[in-house]
Amino acid sequence: MLKSKTFVKKTRSGGIMKIVREHYLRDDIWCGSEFCTECKQDESVLQKDACIESNLCVFPHYLLPDTNVVLSQIDILEDPLIKNVIILQTVLQEVRHRSAPIYKRLKDILHDKEKHFYTFTNEHHSDLSYVVETYIEREPGESANDRNDRAIRVSTKWYSDHLKNARTEEGLRIVLLTNDRENKDKSEEAGLLTYRCEEYIKSLIANPELVDRLALTNDDKNDITSSKVLFPEHLPLSRIQSGIKSGTFLQGTFRASRDNYLEATVFVHGEGDESTEVLIQGLQNLNRAVHQDLVAVEMLPQNQWVGPSSVVLQDEGPKDDDVTGDDEEEKLKGAVVGAGPRKPTARVVGIIKRNWRPFCGMLFLSQIKEATRHLFTPADRRIPRIRIETRQASTLAGQRIMVAIDGWPKHSRYPNGHFVRSLGCAGDKETETEVLLLEHDVPHQDFSQAVLSFLPKMPWSITEEDMAVREDLRHLTVCSVDPPGCTDIDDALHCRDLPNGNQEVGVHIADVSHFIRPGNALDQEAASRGTTVYLTGRRIDMVPELLSSNLCSLRCNVERLAFSCIWEINEKAEIIKTRFAKSVINSKASLTYAEAQMRIDDTSMNDDITKSLRGLNRLAKILKRQRIEKGALTLSSPEVRFHIDSETHDPIDLQTKELKDTNSMVEEFMLLANISVAQKIYEEFSECALLRKHPAPPPSNYDILNKAAKSKNLVIHTDSAKALADSLDAARVDNFPYFNTLLRILATRCMMQAVYFCSGMDSDFHHYGLASPIYTHFTSPIRRYSDIIVHRLLAVAIGADSTYPDLMDKHKQSALCNNLNYRHKMAQYAQRASVAFHTQLFFKSRGIMNEEGFILFVRKNAIIILIPKFGLEGTVFFENKNKPSPKLVFNDEATTLTVEGHTFNMFDKVKVTISLDASNIQHQKIRMSLVEPVIPGVSVAPSEPNEPEAKKAKLDH
Amino acid sequence: MAGLELLSDQGYRLDGRKATELRKVQARMGVFAQADGSAYIEQGNTKALAVVYGPHEVRMSRSKTLHDRAVINCQYSMATFSTAERKRRPHGDRKSTEMSLHLKQTFEAAVLTNLYPRSQIDIYVKILQSDGGNYSACVNAATLAVIDAGIPMRDYVCACTAGFVDETPLADLCHAEESGGGTSLALALLPRGGHIALLQMDARLHQDHLETLMEAAMTACKGVSKVLDQVVRQHLQEVSALTGE
Predict the structure, then answer these.
(1) Is A48 an interface residue toward B (CB < 8 Å)?
(2) In this protein, which residues make up the domain named PIN (chain A) (predicted)?
(3) CA distance A30 to chain B (A)
């Protein structure tokens, strides 16, 4: 291969350094086309019948976009319609420098075999038979961009000529897509077929809807907006940077207010942990910043400082650009008067980094029927409305759609954007699920080809080599116990008597780390997803289904790879010996909790599995007692389960989850395994073990709990977990069995969030809730990435696997923990949102219902009610916009609220009607109204369950 | 955007080479008349000059004299203009001292020193331009210089570096690849017998990958040896043509 190299020097100056690099040109880079007979390529990516039906190009053609087209129109390129595209190395490299996310998307497209995208390494290509090489040097006085544009033109020319030689009568041509006018002129001069991206896309016959996905480029913006300048100019980055250095500007994250579209705060990151909050008010001062942008602000003089307004202001809708501004400011001014103390106020002078993503929302149709410009209202209230151009407005109305922002010119009231895709009809189950996944940033797209390529080939079986390094535990009576319908079984158990009278207990966990090797695309995808998200009726897997439901899942009567933690335990449930091993198991039974419970209870059954279960159950009870004695908390949160109709997938009934003995049996051994593993990996890797901690809550968190207990003349000790657990156990009120559960629900609310961390970066390891000095997650590698890391660490610790640099790097480890914590939090929110949505569906189908509930919190103008039957929480407001509010007296000390003479205490039993408030289609809510106790003018009459329509009027009090 | 993409998806490196390909190697022998042996080598942009004196009587302190074999004295230096930033001290700093020591060890393994007891062989190498793989360029230049001086050796000593990026071993690293993080391994090989004269690696590498990396480095060294062999043959042809034999 050496022979063909021509040697060229490439000089790049940056700063004062002169860097000299070699640049080899080679003649073994092929064009990648099926047409070509000259190139000796093994497989050609670009197809022979490269036909996209178009008015402009009636012949087969390959597209060759320039960098700006890729950067701005990646949405278009991702469309399955667009095929046979040549991506030049110059373009790829430029995209890599300019935008990491788009680079990743482009790479995904390149990997997709269906798309027929070909990367041509033009910078290193040389064609001996061709006069001009596709590699060009920068000429004196030529800017880097101009050079790249020229390189693209030269390559296009080469392709046209090259394929002209090779082509047949069909007349294949290369189409250069560019939006740069100069570039277009020059390339047309050179005789190349060139179109602007818009031109080309609009010419496509079969798919007119692609036009809507076009991003608006600079050329188009002018005609969409009026000439009046509404906003002050943003400062250039250089001015901002010098301003930040000198202290005249501050840098921070922009957070729009949820309730008031004319107000926002900026979190200014100070030195160390210090961060201050600055208020920004008014359209002019907000200056086109969008939620989550990184902005530079300038403080206003103190006499212009204002207090945060307490009113709720929502952008009412489409107005002409010209009339905005003044009157809106007036509205705000009126609201500010009488507001709280003044706060530091600032104005946005420039945007350091935009943090735009595609937003979900709905189209707000323009009043003019034929108009193509419409306003889009995002589901997130903190995002401003976005103006988009579309010809399919009537079809999109009533659908949930996604829109990306392209820019926000200074003479436009709203940012300009383009339509990305439609998610489906608003209110549909699938659509709403999609929306809540997107809004909670849960990665849920199908796994890419690159990821799937790392899956084991089917049919898969355990090889000789695997057997050789693993312990053979197939003879053991292992079984798994899981909730019904579970397909990703990641744990299994066994228990048997040892000759010395002790018992051997094994926890066998799916060996996911055997299949997911560090650093490959599959691993990266799993690391980025972080966790499997369980929504009602849907599961978003962290790893592809082949692994999660088949190869890793420890199903019964198949041989599976496992990572086993095996203890020798004596009669008093003390651990004599712990060992870990990679193993092969063959589960004898996959049971549900109920089945396992039945076997244990049924005295007539005496097979191995049942005996093993009984042994486990007995030990678990002792372990649990020991744990509670140490001060572990038993908390409660109302969890609901939906009975889903098997055909329509609509929820038909709600039921709170109930716990059996066997639930806690499995849980107990999982805890034990997690603790044992945590000790082992911390012992081995004190700097880089991935652990989980649960910090003790600060005493002030318990205020609400204390007040609640006091109302029933009880005292809750909160100085330690043990004291808390004991006093929670003691807190009982006669004739009120649910009181204890309510109290535990409240206690749960006081707790801090448990988090993952890297042992080298923290000194506090304690897990408060479990009262364990050290803890980690080991037992669910199929659905949590943290467990995969723990598996790898443990495998290294026992010498079963090798390390890799990132595993031992505590900073990388800690960055990973941050992502995992974020993903877990978002997954939890998404799960709650999904439950809430299904609850709404349920109540929609049921109409209005009357239920009994308990008061959980008392607020200044409302009470929050928990309905135990559904685990549902709702708020009853006593104030209403359209009506004079009743007389309210709020007692902060005793947390009571007196409404028109009736006093509400915490834990009071009330009766409410439940209905669905669908007045805002994007934000449907469960509405509760008081039925009992009867307070004239406040409570409503109970509704008849079967005629919801008739009673609706009464509810709108 | 962080870092450079050392290996593209299409399998090309920064300068357009594939993973196993060497840079262009060019060499000349007998560049100085006054020295006993001399050679000049270019490995891509790395350029080195080697000069050999000897064998002659021991001129260092007498105590260093070895009675059964020759002493090899190596000195490595870098020209002040060899790097992008001008170097203050051409030789004598820690790195050069270490490099001198490594060269000495390499050539003690290769030169048949027992043929010249109580004598000394001086090898001076200078890097004129540095673009990664300084050690290997020095070894290769010195080999040619020693051959030019007519000092018998067991075999050519050929050196090459190899790195490890994205699970792929890369042969003959350039400066950008060396400084881009990741592991770099320098290997000096006596290619005919496959004996290793020197192996050096400073960064961390997992044991599992060592074998593949070594293999890549060895293949690269053998590639270098072919080029050196050609250079020697051509040089001899030229010289013999001049002397008219």
Answers:
(1) no
(2) 61-185
(3) 11
Cβ A22–B131 below 8 Å, yes or no? yes
Lowest average pLDDT, out of A307-316, A365-374, A521-530, A801-810, goes to A307-316
pLDDT digits (tens, 9 = 90+) for A77-113: 888 888 889 999 999 988 888 887 788 889 888 888 8
The answer for residues whose C-beta is within 8 angstroms of residue B94's C-beta and 6 or more apart is none
Domain A228-426's class? Answer: mainly beta
pLDDT 10s digits, A118-174 = 999 888 887 766 666 777 777 778 888 888 898 899 888 888 888 876 655 566 788
A872 beta partners: A867
Q: Which of A438, A40, A418 is nearest to A212 (CA)?
A: A418
Stretch among A86-90, A758-762, B43-47 having the lowest mean pLDDT: A758-762
Query: Do A228-426 and A847-952 agree at the fold level?
Result: yes
Radius of gyration of chain B (CA): 18
Q: What ipTM was estimated for this complex? A: 0.87
Q: At what angle do helices A721-730 and A738-750 cross, to 10 degrees?
A: 160
Contact present, A477 and A612 (Cβ < 8 Å): yes
- In b/e form, how buried is each residue of A810-842, taking b as 16+ CB within 10 angstroms? beebbebbeebbebbebbeebbebbbbbbbbbb
Question: ∠ CA(A342), CA(A345), CA(A349), 5° rounding?
Answer: 170
Residue of B nearest to A21 (CA): B15
The number of residues in chain B equals 245
Report the CATH fold assignment for A43-122+133-214.
Rossmann fold (3.40.50)
Q: Which of A1, A25, A96 sits opposite B21 (nearest CB)?
A: A1
Assigned CATH topology for domain A847-952: OB fold (Dihydrolipoamide Acetyltransferase, E2P) (2.40.50)
Cβ atoms < 10 Å from Cβ of A289 = 25
Q: Which residues pair with B79 in a beta bridge?
A: none
Give yes or no for A511 touching B (CB within 8 A): no
Q: In chain A, what are the domain boundaries?
A: 43-122+133-214, 228-426, 449-692+757-828, 698-750, 847-952
For residue A656, what pLDDT is reported?
59
Q: Are A711 and A895 in contact (CB under 8 A)?
A: yes
Listed in sequence order, the residues at least 6 apart from A717 whose beta carbon sits closer than 8 Å to its beta carbon are: A723, A724, A726, A727
pTM for this model (two decimals):
0.67
